[in-house]
Design brief:
Length: 333
């Protein structure tokens, strides 16, 4: 009898364990299907008012409308985006922390900093590439050069000319460094904490030259507070068709292309079901004509991608910008 009771207890224990194992994924699946059941934060690793912030809030608004919970932007600036990126990477992979990434945080910083505090490839699960955006080379209204050729000539005659940018290792910084390398000029980067203070200094004449996103500088170019000498991307922009590409100079400049991009990511090991759910909302929003027209008007090109496509894109950018950083000899501590 004792043996029979013992076998019965073992069978019940085994059956109970099997039931618990079966119930666990069912519960997890249900939680993912119901996602989100509470507010979600979107970490933006730069100050309010910049391109990453503007796009983070736009994405958050679309996700809020579609999923019925608040997607709230939290600005965590510092160290070229490393502080916010590290915070996101260390967050629970439950879908309640998302991150707005850029070339700086996911393709450049690993080559610039000895200890950025996170791995942009291994520590994140890509969700979707959102937009691409060229930068503008802009100058104060009184700057003596009226074209890019004149700017290069002026810089050669005035070594040590400073230019503003908004993040060490970001595309604005690298746009200046790549121009320095190709033109053989001595221009010196000055990092600002965001586009808003940089534009204030440029408009006020305290700064003479800057590289900035179209999304934050276009309005000032349009109202003639500043002048645009060149665009850093692979094509001219409809809103400023008279502003030439740097690559139009030809020769060593023919392959000059510095384009910012912004995309949504989550901490690594975030459930695939959640990644796919957020991706579907973003993809749908980016097909809306009114939104696409608004993004183009702001100076960014709507893209959209699958998580796998975004992952492959980041890997390619990582290699490309690593090469530029090494050639430019840039290193930050």
């Amino acid at each position: 009898m004792v043996g029979i009771n013992l076998r019965r207890r073992r069978l019940l224990a085994t059956a109970g364990g099997g039931a618990m194992t079966a119930l666990a994924p069912m519960g997890a699946s249900r939680a993912q299907a119901d996602y989100p059941v509470r507010p979600v934060r979107i970490i933006v690793p730069f100050p309010a008012g910049g391109a990453t912030d503007i796009l983070g809030r736009l994405v958050g608004q679309k996700l809020t409308e579609a999923l019925g919970q608040q997607f709230i932007v939290e600005n965590k600036p510092g160290a070229g985006g490393n502080i916010g990126a590290a915070l996101a990477a260390q967050s629970a992979p439950d879908g309640y922390t998302l991150f707005m990434g850029s070339p700086g945080t996911h393709a450049v910083n690993a080559h610039l900093y000895d200890k950025p505090g996170y791995d942009g490839i291994k520590d994140f699960a890509p969700i979707s590439l959102i937009v691409k955006a060229p930068n503008l080379l802009v100058v104060h209204a009184s700057f003596p050069a009226g074209t890019l050729v004149e700017f290069i000539d002026y810089a050669r005659k005035n070594p040590g000319l400073t230019y503003g940018h908004t993040s060490n290792g970001g595309t604005k910084h690298l746009a200046g460094e790549l121009l320095r390398l190709k033109a053989g000029i001595d221009i010196v980067p000055v990092a600002y904490k965001g586009s808003a203070p940089m534009m204030a200094d440029l408009i006020g004449g305290h700064l003479k030259v800057a590289f900035d996103d179209l999304i934050t500088s276009l309005q000032h170019v349009t109202n003639k507070s500043i002048r645009a000498l060149a665009i850093t991307g692979e094509s001219r922009w409809p809103s400023v068709p008279d502003v030439p590409r740097v690559s139009e100079l030809g020769g060593v400049f023919a392959d000059y292309d510095v384009t910012a991009w912004y995309g949504l990511l989550a901490p690594a090991r975030t459930p695939t079901a959640i990644i796919d759910k957020v991706n579907a909302v973003v993809a749908g929003a980016l097909q809306d004509k009114a939104l696409r027209d608004d993004l183009y008007a702001k100076g960014v090109e709507p893209i959209g991608s699958s998580p796998k496509q975004f992952q492959e894109f980041i890997a390619a950018e990582y290699q490309r910008w690593g090469d530029v950083v090494r050639r430019a000899g840039i290193k930050l501590s």
